[in-house]
Design brief:
2 domains, single chain, Alpha-Beta Plaits, four-stranded antiparallel sheet, alpha+beta, Ribosomal Protein S5, domain 2
Length: about 300
Amino acid sequence: MSVPAATVRVPASSANLGPGFDALGVALSLHATVGCGDPPPDVALDPASGPARAVLADEHHPASVAFAAAGGHGPLWVHAPIPMGRGLGYSGAVRVAGALAAIAQRAPSLVGRAPAEVRDDLVEIAGRLEGHVDNVAASVHGGVVVAAGGRVVPVPLAVAPVILVWVPDDVTTSTDRSRAALPGSVPFADAVFNAGRTALLIAALASGDVDALAIATQDRLHQEARLRTVPGSAAALDAGRAAGAWCGWLSGSGPSVALMCDPATVDEVAGALPAGGHVKHLAIETEGATVLVPGSTGEVELGR
C-alpha cells in the first residue's frame, strides 16, 4: 500500500544526555508516523515495528491536539511504536507529527525534511503543548541539539555510535511526578559541575573525543534522585558502562537507559544488560521531522 498524502514521520528522542537537563536532546531512529484521512493505512510504517495497522487518533490524543492547534482538520491516524511513559519522547514526537501533518495538509507540495521556517513553527507549537522543548527540538531537527534561551542549535557530530536503549518491561514514569521529586535549588558546586560537563559533552561530540564522553555525561542535578526510584535502570546503566559503552544516561525522566556505543562493542554491551527489560538497537536520526512523498511505499520511504 502506498503512503497517502499529508503523511509525516518524526523521530523519538532522548533528553538531558546526563548533565544537559532541559537543554540537550538527541533524535533516535524510532519513529512516529502520522497522516490525514480515514481509514488508516495498513503498511509497515517503521521497519523496527513490523507490519501494523495505524489507528485513528481521538480528539484528546496529543497528536490530534497539536494537529488542531496548527490548523489541521479532519481525521488523523497515528502509528507510533515509541513506548509511552518510558523516557523516549513519545508525546513530543507525536505532537510534532500532528502539527507537521496540519502544515502538510495546507501545503501539498511540501515534501522531505521540514524547512527552517516550518521547523521554527513546529518547535513553538509542540514545545508550548509539551511544556519544554528539549525532546521536541530533537524530534524536529534531528541529530543532537541544544535548546535554550528560545533558540535551537544543532551540535555537529564527529561520531556515529549505536545507541542501545534498555527499556524496562513493567515500569513507566510520569515526567510531572519525576520533576516534582527534584529539589528546588542545588549547591553552587553542583551547578558548576554540570555546566562544565555539559560543555565537555558538546565539545566531545563535535570533536569525536569518545574517551571524554564517560566524564562528560556525569550529572549532579537530576539523575541520582530519579535513579533511586528505578533501581533496575540504575543497574542497567552501570552494567552497560562496565561492558564497554562510551557513556550512558537516564533517558529523559526514565525509566529507560540510553547507552552510546562503538558499533564494534554493541553485542557485548547488549548482552550485559539485565533481564527485566528489552534492548532497542538504534542510531542517531539526523533527518528530523519529514513529510513523506505521497504514493511511495511505506517500506521504501520509511525504511531508509
